[in-house]
Write a structure and sequence with these properties.
The structure is a homotetramer. The first copy, chain A, is mainly alpha-helical. Chain A has 20 helices and 8 strands. Chain A has 3 domains: 95 residues, Orthogonal Bundle (Fumarase C, Chain B, domain 1), CATH 1.10.275; 213 residues, Fumarase/aspartase (Central domain) (Fumarase C, Chain A, domain 2), CATH 1.20.200; 69 residues, Ribonucleotide Reductase Protein R1, domain 1, CATH 1.10.40. The first copy, chain A, is elongated and about 105 Å long. Chains A, B, C, D: It is an enzyme of class 4 (lyase). Chains A, B, C, D: Keywords: Amino-acid biosynthesis, Arginine biosynthesis, Lyase. Chains A, B, C, D: Pathway: Amino-acid biosynthesis; L-arginine biosynthesis; L-arginine from L-ornithine and carbamoyl phosphate: step 3/3.
Amino acid sequence: MSGQLSGRVTEDPSALVRELVLDPQFRYETRTLLPSYVAIEKAIVAEYLRMGLIDAEQARTLGGLLDDVTPERIEDARQQNLSDIALALERTVTEGLAAPVPVWHVDRSRNDLQACAQVMYAKQRLRETAGQLHALADAARRLAERSVDVLMPGYTHFQSAQVISAGFYFAALDERLLRRSRRLLFTYDAIDACPLGAGALSGQELAWDRERIARLLGFERPEPLALTAVASREWALEATAELGLLGATLSRFCTDLLMWAGSEHGFLDLPDALSGISASMPQKKNYPLLERIRGKTAHLAAFHVDALLGQRNTPYTNLVEVSKEAGAHVAQAFDTGRDVLRLFTAVLEGLRLREDRLLAACEKEFFGGFTLANQLTLRHDIPWRTAQVIAGGYVLAAVRAGHTPEEHAPDVLREIAAGHGHTVDAVDAEALLQDAFDVRRALRRMSSAGSAHPDRVGEVLAAQQQDAKVLADAWAVRADAVRTARATTDRALGLVTDTE
Amino acid sequence: MSGQLSGRVTEDPSALVRELVLDPQFRYETRTLLPSYVAIEKAIVAEYLRMGLIDAEQARTLGGLLDDVTPERIEDARQQNLSDIALALERTVTEGLAAPVPVWHVDRSRNDLQACAQVMYAKQRLRETAGQLHALADAARRLAERSVDVLMPGYTHFQSAQVISAGFYFAALDERLLRRSRRLLFTYDAIDACPLGAGALSGQELAWDRERIARLLGFERPEPLALTAVASREWALEATAELGLLGATLSRFCTDLLMWAGSEHGFLDLPDALSGISASMPQKKNYPLLERIRGKTAHLAAFHVDALLGQRNTPYTNLVEVSKEAGAHVAQAFDTGRDVLRLFTAVLEGLRLREDRLLAACEKEFFGGFTLANQLTLRHDIPWRTAQVIAGGYVLAAVRAGHTPEEHAPDVLREIAAGHGHTVDAVDAEALLQDAFDVRRALRRMSSAGSAHPDRVGEVLAAQQQDAKVLADAWAVRADAVRTARATTDRALGLVTDTE
Amino acid sequence: MSGQLSGRVTEDPSALVRELVLDPQFRYETRTLLPSYVAIEKAIVAEYLRMGLIDAEQARTLGGLLDDVTPERIEDARQQNLSDIALALERTVTEGLAAPVPVWHVDRSRNDLQACAQVMYAKQRLRETAGQLHALADAARRLAERSVDVLMPGYTHFQSAQVISAGFYFAALDERLLRRSRRLLFTYDAIDACPLGAGALSGQELAWDRERIARLLGFERPEPLALTAVASREWALEATAELGLLGATLSRFCTDLLMWAGSEHGFLDLPDALSGISASMPQKKNYPLLERIRGKTAHLAAFHVDALLGQRNTPYTNLVEVSKEAGAHVAQAFDTGRDVLRLFTAVLEGLRLREDRLLAACEKEFFGGFTLANQLTLRHDIPWRTAQVIAGGYVLAAVRAGHTPEEHAPDVLREIAAGHGHTVDAVDAEALLQDAFDVRRALRRMSSAGSAHPDRVGEVLAAQQQDAKVLADAWAVRADAVRTARATTDRALGLVTDTE
Amino acid sequence: MSGQLSGRVTEDPSALVRELVLDPQFRYETRTLLPSYVAIEKAIVAEYLRMGLIDAEQARTLGGLLDDVTPERIEDARQQNLSDIALALERTVTEGLAAPVPVWHVDRSRNDLQACAQVMYAKQRLRETAGQLHALADAARRLAERSVDVLMPGYTHFQSAQVISAGFYFAALDERLLRRSRRLLFTYDAIDACPLGAGALSGQELAWDRERIARLLGFERPEPLALTAVASREWALEATAELGLLGATLSRFCTDLLMWAGSEHGFLDLPDALSGISASMPQKKNYPLLERIRGKTAHLAAFHVDALLGQRNTPYTNLVEVSKEAGAHVAQAFDTGRDVLRLFTAVLEGLRLREDRLLAACEKEFFGGFTLANQLTLRHDIPWRTAQVIAGGYVLAAVRAGHTPEEHAPDVLREIAAGHGHTVDAVDAEALLQDAFDVRRALRRMSSAGSAHPDRVGEVLAAQQQDAKVLADAWAVRADAVRTARATTDRALGLVTDTE
């Protein structure tokens, strides 16, 4: 959108375009992409050097000037009416050159430059997101570990249905977060391909070594085809899709916490630093932070929709519409993801379970009906559907009689069984009821892998710990690759010597 | 989330909550809601005065101090760790009072205060949006008026199908924009109800006059029920829905402009100030601005989805999640709408039709087949489906023979007709072809109301002009109501005298 | 996509296209649009008659044959490989004609035909939706009317905050539903413009009377411009937007009902016919129906997004993409809206409030703090912020001492007030506490319009009743217009005589 | 929602619930899940056998009866008022038993049963989608292979910018489709975990071998935690996310095809079987199929949004809202994906490139400016920005003089260069222009990997071929695992003998 340098457009872009489009874009890129632009320019210099188009001295000089570029100097250039960060960077470096380097930027395009800088930015944000995700997963796991024996009602359909433990519940959160990390890692690897060298659209005329460029920029490989390299912004769709999925899952866990922290459940408490009060209801703690977290998860899905809408029905080529406008909120999407993860981590670290209220909520319910039916079948050969009807009948009779689960009525059970043609003797009936309706034995009655039995939960948590380590290591390897690449480039430009 | 003033929470909100939640919210509200907060506080003072709880002097003092509140002073208060703009405003005024006014803020809540300030902000943005919308509609109408005789191909299914005029096309844009203004006005009126006086949730204990409060704040009426007043943020859904609809429609017109400005069509040109060039293809003008506009329309729908997601499955009551977080991008949505409208207006004002290329594109096509079939039926009693087949057969024969539409072959027509059992004499055949395939007569052959006939388009444009005026007047009435209300409040507080 | 009748395409559409595209579309249109197609064809015949192109006998014959068209006959035509309902209808009628009517379908296009049939369908569905909406609003109002004195906790931020009544709550639902009806009516009126007479794109060559056509088809007016008439499907966006808004609002009320019906709240009950049980937990009632309703509201927003995505970035003209594919789920959207409304109505009609539990939930809370602070200010001149601190201090002291709200400790209040430098005598203190903490007086303490005071709620409900009537009448007027139009057309075709 | 068998609910579900909720769900599950339900029941029988709770004869009997279950018999059961496919299946089998098997279904839940059947269905649809995706990728690759030498303009910003080949373009489509297959495979592997054995929520009481169950059902592993097994439907989000991404990408390629098939470009043609004509414009071919495909891609994203909205803010547990309602359109999403892929494949198989028009579009453009600038720098040491200005100046001069790209004006070039202080001799100038502006040499001038050079495109296509094979093999391995599992189960139940 600039015409200062050559060609047909002779007027300046109007103030309107500058105000509403160019300047915001310029600032956005300075904030998000500048370090990547510098790194790319350095890799380009390294290639000119390799191709013998510049000499070592020129390479070192250009490299040094690139290292000196700061946001402030770029901003100065912008105020001289440059429309674009790439041109500003070129001007900044050029002004620092004692002697011109004629060949500099020959056979170059801004299309693959911008595509490359954006992917580098996306990679960085994905790595950061993974770090925040693991911090939350760790917090969930620690909370789970210390609460595998804290009984609580497990709900289905908003009704308490079975006894579980808080540890069992938070292990589920950890599980899903590790799943998200695994997908994020896959997403990262899928975009870890370097667009540079694609030129404007159709490739480049000089013999650029795209494998080497990819290596110098910390990519796993070059993007195979020039067209996809400049036309695609699938990474923006894929990254925001992952954030949207994360948001959907977290919104569900957050819904439980909000309800459980509410006045009728009263299962949870947060420290004062994470709570709020209304001036007019001073006896109450509110948890606006939980509302904020849940509310923010909505944005994550919306930003994905934004990216989808923005790319929809556009030609498959390099377009401002796709490369800039459709990705306008990607940074905001990552920021929101970061905030959600950090705030949720603070919540889990501060969360206090009100164990007395959790236990009381368990003890008031007749949870043992299913167990009773199981035992009627297994010990007394009563067909299972009939056993269910008998167990159900017993529970309903107890409820109607105003009994608590612990007040057993073996005669009632026997009578109902008899009504279905089955005999249960008095001792057995008492034993069955004792076994089935003791809340404190509920967890240990479970036996299957992955069940709420504290030992099973412990096994799952141990496996998660191991998984988390494997994943975190994989992320670390990728971060190292980027760091190493930077050093390699600096050596190639003669900016550092090997002895350093 | 604040506990400075009373009650159970004894620690300060943590730095994290402040950084990620409280401070951004505070700044957002200072930027968007402060004038409304001040206006509301003045209306509240007017009510205390009416109820005899404060005297005229106190009212004038409070009113004056409220008028002195600036964003900077509010920001100072924030830095003293106040979490909330309402508290900051209270503190700022309180510090200015020579003598305390004990009753000030009795029976008040921040819930209806915030709900009210937000609706006032939404109303303001809707009025501004309407103004921008009308500017675009006016530009579309002016462009249409000067191009009712500029022939161009009308496309269906990406194929040129009939001759239309550019004026006919841009009249359609005007039509849809006026429709949007009409819905926006309805949306405005639907939200023009004052939440103040709803208290925290269930109403207020003092005898507040909610009709008067609504009037003092420029609302058409009070919101009838306290619960809806504080719980609903439907305005955010409704306003963003309208922006989303606007975006969807504009994206379609923008798609045409993008394609028509492309190298194969070459129908349009924009002035240099609105164009771009690629340094490496200096002979080309690009129109990134059109891409930007179209790309920005995507955000409008996305922000609506954001609001929908944010409110979804929340309790129907006052919630931070709904009142703040779900509306976090509403200002951005309005900003985006404004940018789209302003940029699109600049485009239409600068747009140049390349009439030669438009005409050439018309002349190469055989548009007259439909007319020919009509006339074969009407003048020669050939059943219409047969007439279509004959006309189609003629066109195909002409295309195969390599004729242009103006090269008539009456004998071919007669032969094909004969093949279907119909006789057309030579003079008639020539006349039929002459009439049907003369591109320059195509528009004037149309006769129905709303057709592309220049006179019909002129009638539509005149009606649109009238509609636009009625709508603009209606918007002006609403802007006046708000201005008048402000003056009335100032008089009630004794800040201005009637002679002013 | 058909080439049987004329022109260049000589092969049959492949089986694939038929299976995946043409046949589903044909069946969809037969199901949804056939009656409108017939009505439109009759209006067209009436116009041929008016223009003198056919005679009265031909008109009556065509009209009679059109009345005889059935879905089955259309389906027969489809199986003869016709790709399109309009062609099938033409063939069906043609086969019934004893003598051909050559002029029939001269100057006609399928573009405006389909556009018109779709709008007629949309209008019908909107009217039906309004009826279902009013049924729900009536159910909400009846429920509200019988529960204005049923106390319940009002929540903010998931914490009980004030006493409200169930009637107050359900009046809010009624309020929002009437708002939705009002917007739906506006939406209806905005689309009540007849596309017929727009031809393929640019209008028609004969002197069709578009005002009369509109009238014969029950439209309020013709669509002004031919291009918008065939290019726009904004009605699909607007109608689904309204459904999406309805869904968002209902999802919130449904969230409350789900939580309140849950085991920890236990505020609500549904009859067995609307409840579910788990075989293994027979003592429990589940309310899967509430989950279904809430879940279905999600689809409403999604179908709007679908329409937005489908129209996005398409040329502004007649397109299969927009006219058919983008609207592919509109009928499903209306169906889902209908199901949500009918099921929600059944829920409200069957819902039983568990008044004992609601009252108990109120009585355990210290709701009076805000009132106490108000009175300390109003009666004792204690500045309001200090009064809040004193009231808050009293409540916290009472909670810590293990008191219930009804166990007053006037000395504690006096002591705290004294600590802030204010004297409250013993009699006053007792009176203040008695007044503030009596849950049963809470509602009647409210006085502002729209508050939870039973009388205020009654006034709101009476106004709603009136509103509902005005709206329902407006909908009835529109339904009448369509019915009348049908009769007028039949008279014009001589199908009925005036004496009938 | 059923109460026939036991417990408190005594009335039948109302007709409304049956009509709007239960019956549609029942039919949906019969259509989509029945084979999985049968397979799961067989695995359960195998486990009862392993645990010694039933004998081999009972196992074989149950297995045989399960194999005999048909949709028709399930439908009969539904009409006897069973609300649920699981109960219908149980009843159908029970009625076939000569002697009861009391233990059958002891310790079982419908929660993990349904979760498991749904994942099995999702896996099947993902495998099918992969097959359709690879068919499209193959078609794209074949088309690319035969058109690596077909020149066409490459566009950026809707302006032709460089010469590319059709093969280069379609290689990009292949590339992106393989990327989608890779992500789909990862998505598949992520959900390839068996929920069975999770019970209602908290696990099971008997010693079920979850590893073995997973194996018998063709899963790679069991889902680790009981809670996630029944609460999560992340697979629905993940699968629809992938479909949405596919839709976004395909919409872009489809946009190109639509534009290129339009009358002003005229680059493409489809066979008649895939084309349409308008009766009134018989000389035209329309491509409604392309519009359909593009339109359908919109639904893919919308169905993802539907799933996101449906799960949002629900408790993390087993819920009808999530398990059924939120996934209500998943099958439709897969169907739409299938239709898009099949139709797009038909398009690519039938697509004919109009090479003459493609070449003509190339030849009219001055594509060589960039090359010219490069060579001015490389051969003449002109600094690159200046070289660009000179090249741009030359092109503009040629355009203004009305030259075609092939009409060289070396003197003009020399003059402009001189104006910038650089000397180019006449021979060089001619050579430079000859080289730069020869369209037919454009592709072979490219040299970088992934460029449009036919050899480079060939290399990319060969690599894609290899990738496609690796991916297809991976999908085949997964399909085999499911087949093998089925046979293993049948052997375990004694339904087949090892000699078979």
